[in-house]
UniProtKB/TrEMBL annotation:
Transport found in the keyword field: no
Positions of substrate binding: R389
Protein name: FAD-binding protein
Annotated InterPro entries: Alkyl-DHAP_Synthase (IPR025650), FAD-bd_oxidored_4_C (IPR004113), FAD-bd_PCMH (IPR016166), FAD-bd_PCMH-like_sf (IPR036318), FAD-bd_PCMH_sub1 (IPR016167), FAD-bd_PCMH_sub2 (IPR016169), FAD-linked_Oxase-like_C (IPR016164), Oxid_FAD_bind_N (IPR006094)
One GO BP annotation of this record: lipid biosynthetic process
Length: 529
């Protein structure tokens, strides 16, 4: 897989668009879905009139070189918001009202510090911008009374700085895309093991800033668990964190930076744990009679082991859709039940041992092995979902995802509550829908739930989804679950985060922000108000 250039509203490699089967198109037509108006071409999108004082642009040009500061129309449109479905819908309609006034591309940590100095002095808001795949409004800060908005694109910070073979760590600059990081590490015989579905576009910096979780989290952990150290540029100067793998020297401030979503500083490099590139990778499918039965088996593996590298359970609806979808490529299989995908990576001996142990647990708890075909099909099709979102949108469907996490004891209640809430909110609007769910990240004490919602597009898809999402958020809150397991907070979840944390904890975050960013220029409105 190679790096692809980011299109403002289409996913991934434009030469491999999603393929919607005729049966799906027919089903949508039967539901009365009609294709929306064609997207407004990027050059015709409407931008806010730039407010950036000339003194700022010229100071940035002097600091970085003119070629690394752009106020071009298309570049600004290309740095507008992220990749949530509402973000894409707005941009397709030509609404680039959240565009930055300028886009800067610093080439070093010192240049990032310099940009922050200039913007602090002139009260210009700065949006750290890496892969641009935020789905929670993390790239749409509030302009408020700022003198302008600058997107700080980290794409020139794309180097593998060093590898420590003895400690098995690597230092990566944060604009490095996931694909590039894996390639550079593979050349040295290693893997990072972080594969979110946004792998083709997202970066090391985005992973750290948004506490990303990849599809191999059971084996390699979440991204925040991989980070050993960070270098952060703040408007007050540089913070360097991480002097030993563990430390009792006070609270772990790395955890304040991880998940800070650009509100506390720009992370310019991270030290991450790395692993020997696996000798062997095997993926398998298992069927369970019900989601509840499958969840019991996943819990057993998470609590008592052995844990595969990849472990996921689709509910009945998602299993049925995936098995009939050639682009998701799960291939043919008997209908009914719930599919578990297991993946094993490591040395030949590790794979054999873990596979044998995990298979025994799955079988004992009612799983029926489907062989390697469904697992391999999942592996090869696992990055295709976002492509299908574009094709479905063009056919008149609206697709969006949401996620949360809770303790095992609360999982069934949460799944039912969120499903019911989303369905009711869409049914009330007269939009027939499918709500699918899977577990893809497991812990000893609980798991995440990831929902994919497909519905007929109405005239105002942004308002349509906002009602469904508000209902889901309320259900998550009522169930005592978290507003996000891995997508983060951005502007979309800011109020929900405040409810989840409570006022004193939010004040702690505010105090941190005001100490590192006294002028409040970093991503205003993201994470905290
Ligand atoms: C189709 C799709 C699939 C996805 N799948 C997954 C998934 O499987 N798992 C998962 O965890 N997430 C997933 N996401 C969400 C998203 O990809 C992750 O949050 C990812 O970590 C963001 O990385 P990015 O480089 O695109 O960051 P961006 O979107 O550019 O930025 C994310 C946030 O971090 C801030 N930021 C960016 N870089 C820095 C930096 N260097 N320093 C400080 N702040 C910074 C930004 O201002 C923003 O608030 C998915 C998104 C999409 C669109």
């Amino acid at each position: 897989m190679s790096n692809v250039e980011r299109h403002p509203y289409l996913w991934g490699n434009l030469e491999t668009p999603g393929h919607l089967p005729d049966a799906a198109k027919d089903a949508l037509a039967a539901l009365g879905a009609t294709p929306p108006a064609p997207p407004v071409p990027v050059p015709d999108a409407t931008l806010p009139v730039t407010e950036l004082p000339e003194a700022v642009t010229s100071a940035l040009r002097t600091a970085l070189g003119s070629e690394h500061v752009s106020t071009e129309h298309d570049t600004r449109v290309g740095h507008t918001r992220g990749f949530s479905t509402p973000d894409l819908v707005k941009l397709r309609s030509g609404d680039a009202s959240d565009a930055p006034d300028a886009v800067v591309h610093p080439g070093s940590h010192d240049e990032v510090v310099h940009v922050l100095d200039i913007c602090s002095e002139h009260r210009v808001a700065v949006v750290p911008y890496s892969g641009g795949t935020s789905v929670v409004g993390g790239l749409a800060p509030e302009r408020g009374s700022f003198a302008g908005v600058v997107a700080l694109d980290t794409n020139r910070l794309d180097q593998l700085v060093s590898v420590d073979d003895v400690s098995r760590t690597a230092v990566l600059q944060t604009g490095t895309r996931g694909v590039t990081a894996e390639r550079l590490l593979a050349e040295r015989g290693y893997t990072l093991g972080h594969f979110p579905q946004s792998y083709e576009m997202a970066t090391i910096g985005g992973y750290a800033a948004a506490r990303s979780a990849g599809q191999s989290s059971a084996g390699y952990g979440r991204f925040d668990e991989m980070v050993e150290g960070l270098t952060v540029a703040t408007p007050r100067g540089t913070i360097t964190l991480g002097t030993a793998p563990q430390s009792a020297a006070g609270p772990d401030l790395r955890q304040l930076v991880l998940g800070s979503e650009g509100a506390f500083g720009v992370i310019t490099s991270v030290t991450v744990r790395i692993h020997p590139a696996p000798q062997q990778r095997v993926f398998e499918g298992w069927k369970f009679d019900s989601f509840a039965d499958g969840a019991v088996a996943l819990r057993a593996l998470a609590q008592d082991g052995p844990l595969p590298t990849v472990l996921r359970l689709s509910d009945e609806v998602e299993t049925a859709v995936n098995l009939s979808d050639p682009d998701a490529a799960l291939g043919s299989g008997e209908s009914g039940g719930c599919l578990v995908v297991t993946g094993y990576e490591g040395t030949d001996a590790q794979v054999a041992r873990t596979r044998e142990g995990a298979s025994a647990v799955l079988r004992k708890l009612g799983g029926v092995c489907q062989g390697e075909q469904p697992g391999e099909a999942w592996r090869t099709g696992r990055f295709r979902g976002p492509y299908l979102r574009d094709s479905l949108f063009d056919s008149g469907a609206l697709v969006e995802t949401l996620e949360t996490a809770t303790y095992w004891a609360n999982l069934d209640t949460l799944k039912t509550a969120v499903t019911d809430a989303v369905q009711a909110a869409l049914n009330d609007q007269g939009s027939p829908n499918l709500v699918m769910c899977h577990i893809s990240h497991v812990y000893e004490s609980g798991a995440s739930l990831y929902f994919t919602v497909v519905t007929k597009q109405l005239d105002d898809p942004v308002a349509q989804w906002a009602k469904a999402k508000a209902a889901a958020n309320a259900a998550i809150r009522d169930c005592g679950a978290t507003i996000s397991h891995h997508h983060g907070v951005g502007t979309d979840h800011r109020e929900a985060l405040a409810l989840e944390l409570g006022p004193i904890a939010v004040d702690v975050l505010r105090a941190v922000k005001s100490s590192v960013d006294p002028a409040g220029i970093l991503n205003p409105g993201v994470l905290i108000g």
